[in-house]
Design a protein that fits this description.
The complex is a heterodimer of chains A (317) and B (301). Chain A has helices spanning 14-26, 28-51, 64-67, 74-81, 83-103, 105-116, 120-131, 138-149, 155-162, 174-201, 206-214, 219-230, 232-244, 252-257, 263-266, 269-279, 283-310; strands at 57-58, 69-70. Chain A is an all-alpha fold. A two-stranded antiparallel sheet of chain A has the order 1-2. Chain B has 2 domains: 19-67, no CATH class; 68-300, MetI-like (MetI-like fold), CATH 1.10.3720.10. Chain B has helices spanning 20-47, 51-55, 69-76, 78-106, 117-129, 134-143, 151-154, 161-173, 176-184, 189-200, 202-218, 221-226, 235-252, 265-300. Classes of the chains: A mainly alpha (317), B mainly alpha (301). Chains A and B meet through α2, α6, α7, α8 and α9 of A and α1, α4, α5, α6 and α10 of B.
């Protein structure tokens, strides 16, 4: 940031110096526009990164970051001694891996199907409806899930009962709950996820399909040999990005969907940080957990990106 | 990301006859559409059905024993209306603030003559992959004295780095010659931005406004952390307190004799619909913008 204030080195020509100065003056409005956004990023993004230093302190809310005692890695040691730590890390990885296995292929398949639709009005209304769940809050999704899968009066169990079977404990037994959790993830994101693949599909040359028509290739053959390879780079990048975020889990979805009976699976890093930090005021311990997640997550992202580049893809940066 | 060079030539799109495989695909997609729709139909049906019909499990996707009572209760609930009012104002202010900030950030970053451009981009992009965490965020808000203030729901989320990148790549795609002719006419950077660049960016501006508005409307994590005064709860948090709590209570306490009905099912359903309808109303209007907007971000980003 200071670079523009530094005078040009002495050995540069005076003429160049003056032109640079007027150049910056001419563009002062650009810097003016940037002041508030950069201030925002420093205050709300970088100050908390400094604040994460309390992971190495015996933080007291009264003494603040500057006054609290430094205790090195004590918080991390305590964290690694807790059996709950391993549980929440395991759950986070498990939910994310299963999400990857089930939620990742769904938009690809859906995009291939949407791409094959030739009736325009049907395709348009399908897209409208399939994108909708992305815009519904997790609170409301939680309500919908309850209305659909509850043991008492849930629509699905009503149907199951009507067919003469016992109610299925979708929300109260952890393995069933896991299925509902994963299914809800697909419901929420599959439609929206098609957008990026549909965008990629528009880049595939028509000529390839026409050539395949001449060769007498059927619809499935064309999907397999032209369409799918055509979006392969996008699939690889999306997969690697998701792998990079394997340690990162949102707060709202597990928080809303979890309940006391399924905590064995539903307690993840983000909900643990909330409970330890804000509900039991163990600020340092919770920050240590958060920092652990952020650092491991960063390593994963960097690895994922270099793998993407090795595959000859563009990568994220 | 995509080889954008190969253009699709839409010459003579010949009228294809509908084949059997077309019908099969339509049926599969149709099932997916139904799965998106049924939960909403069910909850609408429950919210409009009579108590007896709900208790005896007769309600599927059509209302049974038409009854507006649940909605009457919701609309007479002053706290619920208050939360809705707060959320509408909050969402509107938040969206405007976010858009102004995002435009201010994105435009200079498209300019090659901006000194330190890649440095600024780097510090912005880095925040997408690393953060201090929930607790340092909370402590910062506390230090700033913004707990129990609407500012805590506006300021910390003013710019999404992701949206910023979408906007920046859209601005970059605008032909430079247009801006240059404005400069030749003596227009300043801000003048050019307002008169030339923004009018050409309406689809992406609409898309990003939708994203910001939806994230504010739907988000409740920050409110859960920062707002403890229930008078100031946004609608999602209110819904969580009122509806989800009673649902979870029912769910986990059912092993007892008879579940204590904290709240009638119809009322829960009506409350959920109350918070959903604004999204459902706005969504179809904005949907046509966001597809094109997102595509720009997806292909270029």
């Amino acid at each position: 940031m200071d670079r523009r204030a530094t005078p040009a080195p002495n050995n540069s020509l005076p003429l160049v110096k003056r032109r640079q100065a007027t150049g910056i003056w001419k563009d002062y409005q650009l810097y003016l526009l940037l002041i508030l956004p950069i201030a925002y990023f420093i205050l709300f993004k970088y100050v908390p990164m400094y604040g994460a230093a309390i992971a190495f302190q015996d933080y007291s809310i009264f003494k603040g970051v500057t006054g609290s005692e430094w205790i090195g890695f004590e918080n991390f040691k305590e964290l690694f001694r807790m059996s709950q730590f391993y549980e929440v890390v395991r759950n986070t990885l498990m939910l994310n891996f299963l999400d990857l296995a089930f939620s990742f292929p769904a938009p690809i398949i859906l995009a291939l199907l949407l791409n094959e639709l030739s009736v325009v009005w049907f395709k348009k209304s399908a897209q409208t409806l399939l994108y909708l769940p992305h815009f519904i809050s997790w609170i409301i999704i939680g309500g919908l899930v309850y209305q659909m899968f509850s043991n008492q009066g849930g629509l699905v169990n009503n149907v199951v009962n009507a067919l003469g079977f016992d109610s299925i404990p979708f929300l109260t037994e952890k393995n069933h709950w896991l299925l509902v959790y994963l299914g809800t993830g697909i419901w929420h994101s599959a439609g929206w996820g098609t957008i990026i693949y549909l965008a990629a599909l528009t880049g595939i040359s028509r000529d390839l399909y026409e050539a395949a028509d001449v060769d007498g290739a059927g619809r499935l053959k064309k999907m397999w040999h032209i369409t799918l390879p055509g979006i392969r780079p996008t699939i690889v990048v999306m997969l690697i990005m998701q792998l990079g975020h394997i340690m990162t889990i949102g707060f709202e979805r597990p928080f809303v969907m979890g309940n006391a009976l399924v905590m064995d699976y539903a307690e993840v890093i983000s909900t643990f940080v909330y409970k330890a930090g804000l509900q039991s005021a163990q600020f340092s311990l919770a920050t240590a957990m958060g920092l652990f997640q952020a650092l491991v997550g960063l390593v994963f992202v960097v690895i994922a990106n270099s793998i993407a580049k090795r595959f000859g893809e563009q990568g994220i940066w | 990301m995509v080889g954008g060079e190969s253009m699709t030539n839409t010459s003579t799109a010949k009228l294809k006859r509908i084949r059997l495989s077309d019908i099969a695909i339509m049926i599969i997609v149709g099932i997916a559409m139904l799965m998106c729709l049924v939960p909403f139909l069910h909850i609408i049906a429950v919210s409009l059905s009579s108590k007896q019909a709900i208790i005896s499990d007769q309600v599927t996707i059509f209302p049974v024993g038409w009854d507006w009572e649940s909605y009457k209760i919701v609309f007479q609930d002053a706290r619920m209306l208050r939360s809705m009012g707060i959320t509408i104002v909050l969402t509107a202010v938040y969206t405007v603030v976010c858009m102004i900030m995002s435009i201010c950030a994105a435009y200079p970053l498209t300019k090659r003559q901006l000194k330190g451009r890649s440095f600024f981009m780097m510090i912005i992009v880095f925040t997408m992959f690393f953060s201090g965490g929930l607790i340092p965020d909370y402590l910062l808000i506390k230090e700033l004295g913004m707990l129990d203030s609407m500012l805590s729901l506006i300021l910390p989320g003013m710019i999404s780095a992701f949206n910023l990148i979408i906007l920046r790549s859209f601005f970059t795609s605008i032909p430079e010659s247009l801006e240059e002719s404005a400069y030749l006419d003596g227009s300043s950077h801000i003048g050019t931005l307002i008169r030339i660049v923004l009018p050409l960016s309406l689809p992406v501006l609409a898309t990003l406004s939708l994203f910001y508005a939806v994230s504010r409307w739907n988000g409740f994590m920050d409110a859960l952390f920062y707002i403890s005064n229930s008078e100031m709860y946004p609608i999602q948090l209110k819904l969580y307190q009122v509806v989800m709590n009673s649902m979870v209570t029912d769910l986990t306490a059912q092993e007892g004799a008879i579940a204590t009905e904290v709240m009638p099912e119809g009322l829960k359903a009506a409350s959920i619909m109350f918070a959903t309808v604004p999204i459902l109303v706005v969504y179809p209007w904005l949907q046509r913008y966001f597809v094109s907007g997102v595509m720009v971000g997806a292909v270029k980003g």
